[in-house]
Amino acid sequence: MAAFSLRPLTPDDLPAAQALTAALRWPHRVEDWAFALALGEALAAEVEGRLAGTAFGWRHGADFATLGLVIVDDALQGRGIGRRLTQGVLDRLGEGCRVLLHATEPGLPLYRSLGFRPVGEIRQHNGLVVAAGGEAPPPGFRLRPLRPEDVPDLLALDAEATGMARAALLHAVLPLAEGVVLERAGRAAGFALIRPFGRGEVVGPVVAPGVAAARALIGHWLAARTGRFLRLDVPPESGLGARLAAQGLPEVSGVIGMMRGAPPARSPELGVYGLVSQSLG
Description:
Layout (H helix, E strand, L loop, with lengths): L3 E5 L5 H10 L6 H10 L1 E7 L2 E11 L3 E9 L8 H13 L4 E6 L4 H6 L3 E12 L13 E4 L5 H12 L4 H7 L4 E7 L2 E11 L2 E9 L2 H14 L4 E6 L5 H7 L4 E10 L10 E4 L7
Parallel strand pairs: 4-5, 10-11
Antiparallel strand pairs: 1-2, 2-3, 3-4, 5-12, 6-11, 6-12, 7-8, 8-9, 9-10, 10-13
């Protein structure tokens, strides 16, 4: 068998990288790969001059990172490529960095062996939105469009909800996104962004002070995108799954959240009810 080598992933690799996800029936476009590469540190595995696998790390401040898009060509499985790619990204992030990832079932043994432990689940819902009205926000709140002056509040809300400093990620998402804000007493108390991704659009991140608030934020986009293809990645304990399924977005798959190092300290007053993506968190 030909040996493999590791090197940095470059923009020239993106069409071949997109082919790796297409082979898995993942919906990523070349544009989605380019977005991920612009934000992160990525390694490529190469066999006989062709791309055989990838792995990414994205830093969130000095202490945290997410890891994802760990993919190996199915024809080259069993050669340790995935382990080498994952360890290579972890080495780049540094020993003191606490790392979050979302793992499919086949990846669990590898990640456990590298010190990751389960911390929760995420369920993917997608489909064509069935016509329905939005949901009223809880008493004392109102929904309104995102304004440029809201950005500092959004960064602070996201940091409270995730326990991570994700300003770089949000600043990259915002130019591509539309947003709706949940306002209380003249200040943003929650928000939901929507942007192009995969087969249509993804709603996320969704940050809200409780499930009722999250339903109102998500319901806004469901009502605004009737007949369109949407995706959400949500925690099952939120109870949002039944509502999404009833509006044409059934659960199609799930992943396990895993953490290496102590989990971030998150505000009990806020929750993340929709991810930017499974890879980015």
